[in-house]
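ok trying again, last paste got cut off:
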Amino acid sequence: MEFRKAIQPALIDLEGGKSQFSAIQGSFDNHVAAARDYSAFLVERKRRKFLSALQDYEEWRENLYGRDREETLYDTEAPDYVNAKNTNPVHLLKTLLSYAPT
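nice, full thing came through this time. structure:
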C-alpha cells in the first residue's frame, strides 16, 4: 500500500538512530496525506481508531516541532511539550502501520 511506503522510510531511519527531526520533519506532510487517503478504505470502526492514532501523531509533531524558537526556549516545561518529548515516534508510526495490511 502507498501508505506503508510513505511511512516505512521514516521508521527505518528512526530505528537506525537518525534524529526524530530529520527522519520525520521533511516527510511529515506526505505521511499525513497518505494516511488520510488510506483512511478512506477503512471501515467505520477501524477508520475512527486509525484517525485517532493519526491525530496523536499530528499533535505529537505540533507540540514538539510546531513551536517557534522563543516558545521552545521559554516554555520547555509545558505539559504538552514534555509529553511529546517523552513520546517515542517509532511507537506512533508502528501504531499507524498496525492498521495497514502487509
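cool. Residues 3 and 37 are 8 Å apart (CA to CA). The chain has a mean pLDDT of 88.
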